């Protein structure tokens, strides 16, 4: 009886395998086939591929082993199929491959520039306040970041606060009314006086009017609290810083003026180069505009007298020397290209400039005449004066225009001196 055997993967049909088993002669002794190496390789491949080995089971049946190792089996046809990778299943129609979205590149955080905020200077305070308001004023000022050097009240504290103001403080808080003498002492410390804050009570309008009349810079209403005093203290700090800058500017201006004087002729009463004269007059114009100082100029012209053998040059030299000797120490004189002389008269109004012009005319006339042979002549001088009044806008171009007009009128009227009104 022949037992039905399952179909083994790699065989063509079950009938072919059955005929091979039926037709085989029974053997008593197993003979090793010639292609044992190929069979062993196929068996090893079946072990490595469980899908193929699952179609039959080696349960000790010799017939199964003989069928597997029969010489008529074409093992070379099975090897490529066994080693080939199974085809990938087709993708489902409804399935869509998700799109891969690349993450955005990481951006470096922007580098923020460090903002340097202006620092409020710490002020040194002197306080003259009423007894009941003194402690709150000191506390508010200290809480705002400032320093209280001295705080006093009453008659005994008046001299104490005054001494500290003279010694030097940045700001002073003074009670009004009653602290007017303390404000007077603070104002007397100009140009380095402290910032004056008046402590007022009652209606703010009346208190501010009283503070302005006393000479205070700022006003703070009682009671003294940090929230109420913070804006006033900020304004005091800003005002103190601006006063320092103004003082430094005035110091720099004084240094510049000293350098200009060094660049000029060692003799301050001599003729100055035109470059130095222009820089000095620009500086004097700025000072006159800022501080309201008067400023005048005088345009001088010597009469042209022809003398033989260079006598006219001798006459001009003597007249120029007389003019230079007659100007004041604060005046500056230079020679223009056309031979005329220009004199700068700082801190001088038109009346003072007229007096200087009269003196110059007398100085030239007092010179002895120059005699060459039978010809004798003296120098003649005509002057045109121009200046600016307090409150008027000064400019060098306008001064020169007015001085030329005055000099032309002096020639027309045969006068020694004409002042442009």
Provide an overview of this structure.
- The termini are far apart.
- Strand 4, helix 9 and strand 5 (218-221) form a beta-alpha-beta unit.
- This protein has 421 residues and is an alpha/beta fold.
- The strands form 3 sheets. The chain has a 6-stranded mixed sheet, with helices on both faces.
- Helix 2 (36-48) runs parallel beside helix 5 (75-83) and helix 6 crosses helix 10 (226-263).
- The chain is 46% helix and 15% strand.
- Among the domains are: 124-246, Response regulator (Rossmann fold), CATH 3.40.50; 267-419, Reverse transcriptase/Diguanylate cyclase domain (Alpha-Beta Plaits, 2-Layer Sandwich).
- It has helices spanning 14-23, 36-48, 50-53, 62-68, 75-83, 131-143, 154-167, 180-187, 204-214, 226-263, 274-291, 311-326, 350-365, 396-413, and strands at residues 124-128, 147-152, 171-175, 195-200, 218-221, 271-272, 295-302, 332-335, 341-346, 370-372, 375-377, 381-388, 417-419.
C-alpha geometry: flat
The helix content, as a percent range, equals 40-55%
What is the level-2 CATH architecture name of the domain at 267-419? 2-Layer Sandwich
Counting helices, strands and paired strands, the structural category is alpha/beta
Content of β-strand: 5-15%
Chain-wise SSE layout:
Elements: H1 14-23, H2 36-48, H3 50-53, H4 62-68, H5 75-83, E1 124-128, H6 131-143, E2 147-152, H7 154-167, E3 171-175, H8 180-187, E4 195-200, H9 204-214, E5 218-221, H10 226-263, E6 271-272, H11 274-291, E7 295-302, H12 311-326, E8 332-335, E9 341-346, H13 350-365, E10 370-372, E11 375-377, E12 381-388, H14 396-413, E13 417-419
